[in-house]
Amino acid sequence: MSDLDFSKLETLSVSIDQHIAHIQLSRPEALNSMIPIFWHELPATVRKIDEQSAARVIVISSQGKHFSAGMDLSVFTQMGQDFVGEPGRRAERMRRMVLELQDSFNALESVRMPVLVAMQGGVIGGAVDMVCAADSRYCTQDTFFTIKETEIGMTADVGTLQRLPHLIPQGLVRELAYTGRNMGAQEAKESGLVNQVFADQESMLAEVMKIAAQIAGHSPLAVAGCKEMINYTRDHTVADALNYMATWQTGMFQMPDIQEAMGAAKERRKPVYQELHKNISGMQRK
Ligand SMILES: CC(C)(COP(=O)([O-])OP(=O)(O)OC[C@H]1O[C@@H](n2cnc3c(N)ncnc32)[C@H](O)[C@@H]1OP(=O)(O)O)[C@@H](O)C(=O)NCCC(=O)NCCSC(=O)C[C@@H](O)C[N+](C)(C)C
Known about the structure:
isomerase, lyase, 11 helices, binds L-carnitinyl-COA inner salt, 2-enoyl-CoA Hydratase, Chain A, domain 1, 286 residues
């Protein structure tokens, strides 16, 4: 997907400035509902930013009244028509499809730079799956989160039930999943799902961009190490994670960024860091 053209995306708009990539869900007229191409465009965009741009942090926001209404309802109608044929093969196709959809949001976790999400209005169904895979979440006071899947007769399948229990208390996850009720912004803040609640989208984006700028000012290698370690620690024991940390540091602890950070502080200037490695020649993802 290295030839992906950002200007031709159907569901997203992308801008990159001062080491900050801003991805916006750009179908406000359809409540940013998730149509099939969205699931391809999002991971391809994130991977291209990671591999081919000077961005060091990604901000995801959306245009319009709602952050996202989740899966476009027309997809369910289409799926009803597609899922025909011999049960074993049909089940295997379904399994592969769910794994592919999961992969779309896994991209937010595997990208080397932090992903900050700024939300307003409804964050529904698949959108909850998506924002759970980000590094940090921010929202406006009118935001509400809904694990809608249960209400429409299915189990959420692209990350909410796996990641949300690491973000907020188990009992609350279970209540939200079993009931499908809305969780408002204040409750999201109190439970730790979002870091901050803002009066409106403008003040939210201004603050999130400030946080992004702080991240982008640091060594991208140091920040990537933080993300790698925090992700790894979530899924392993402390002993395993400490062991991995030591091995990581054996290779990644190098003097240039440390010298640059110290030199810049002494000279009261902004540090200038080398970008992370881009594609290895001849090994580009097709
Ligand atoms: C989003 C919402 C809170 C907005 O409320 P509102 O009061 O501002 O607007 P509205 O009048 O309810 O909706 C405006 C229009 O937007 C349409 N709309 C709302 N949600 C839509 C959606 N998801 N897809 C297509 N159209 C959607 C409405 O039908 C309606 O169409 P109309 O103007 O032609 O009547 C409200 O419409 C709502 O709850 N919609 C239902 C959303 C919904 O069920 N989404 C699916 C969630 S489940 C999900 O995402 C599953 C997925 O993760 C699993 N998997 C990956 C395998 C597929």
